[in-house]
Amino acid sequence: MHIYFSGIGGTAIGPLALIASQAGYDVSGSDKQDSNYISYLKKQGITQIHIGQSGAELKTLHEKKPIDWLVYSSALVRENPNHPEITAATKLGIRTSKRDDFINKLLEDSGQKMIAVAGTHGKTTTTSMFIWLLKQLEIPISYSVGGKLSFGEMGEFNPKAEYFIYEADEYDRNFLSFEPEVAVITGIAYDHPDIYPTEESYIDAFEDFIYSSGEVFGHNEDLAKVNLEGEGGVARDKFTLIGDVNRKNAQLVVETVSVLFKVPLDKCITIVNNFPGVSRRFEKISENIYSDYAHTVEKIQGALQIAHEVAGDNVVVVYEGLHNTRQHFIKDELKSLFKGVKKLYIVPSYLAREDESLELLTPQKLCRLMQVPNHREPAELNDLLKSAMKKHIEDADLVLCLTAGGGGSLDEWLRKTF
Hints:
The protein is of the alpha/beta class. The chain is 39% helix and 19% strand. It has helices at residues 13-22, 36-43, 56-64, 74-79, 84-91, 99-110, 123-136, 199-211, 220-223, 244-261, 265-272, 297-311, 324-329, 331-337, 363-369, 383-394, 410-417, and strands spanning 2-6, 26-31, 49-51, 69-72, 95-98, 113-118, 142-144, 155-156, 163-167, 182-185, 215-218, 283-286, 289-292, 315-322, 343-350, 376-378, 398-402. The strands form three sheets. It has a six-stranded mixed β-sheet, with helices on both faces. Strands 12-13-17-14-15-16 form a six-stranded mixed β-sheet, sandwiched between helices. Helix 7 crosses helix 10 (244-261).
């Protein structure tokens, strides 16, 4: 079967293309821009990738080697409901669907069972911890994760695996496409108001997901939100990882693996305590500079807690909001969110999938919202910010950069600059 992945350079579609290739499917694809990850995919044998998504290239490829299925991400059609590749594929009679349908087909063909890691926050780290632990235990697994790992690919298919570990996203209700054997809930806190107009509708989606799953693992406070009773878990003081959120995530991973694979708890805890981390989750860029993809209130609070645990009161934050729409959604919480930091720099938000009717909250406007008297200022990704950050490093401050997006983002600027 020939599968064509539109947006193959993305953090969700790219790893899925790699998984499909390893599972024996014929894989090709496209993206609107070139990237290091596309170069990497080509080195892994996925050579039929072109840059540009006019639809003409897809038609030419289809004539040479008929495409059976075009797989795309939710973001593709939300950005452009009349995306030219989907339009072209439809005219050519090619099946088109979001990635979820293909994942279900992969599971059906392979006979593997899904462990779905879902939640408002902590999905990527928790999924990565599962991968780390099971690899160290030498238990065969297939998986897909939304972050770069130092100990494996972002996606991998192992024909010997019993389970496929999947980071299941609630955005666009994607996770409701699955009926996992095991569901792991990392946390539930209202998000994505563009998809879920009320908090009740958001909770209802998680409830539907959980009741379509087999065995469920989660923290008691989250399970209570969907009318489930939890049980006492592993004592959290057994975990030595930095950060409350990391210790909570580790607790879920250890409990799940111990039950499913009959591995002693103490053995699991020892391995997880050596977890090396994942890209963009309190990732050290250079001495005293960290990047964290924290964009919801709970994620930001978690990243700040880790920073203060490491550096006490000497925490400086560079904040890049993810979406102007979200800044409106969380602006009441933003007022006091950074109260405990030594200095706050606010750079322009990363814009995508925006509600154009909303006022653009510039760094200057966000500064006026913040309750960090005399310790906040608007900034740009330029030499002035670079110099300010270097001065903080000289003063032994920890600079936590809350980053969003990919190309052109604060995270990309950090890596180029430091």
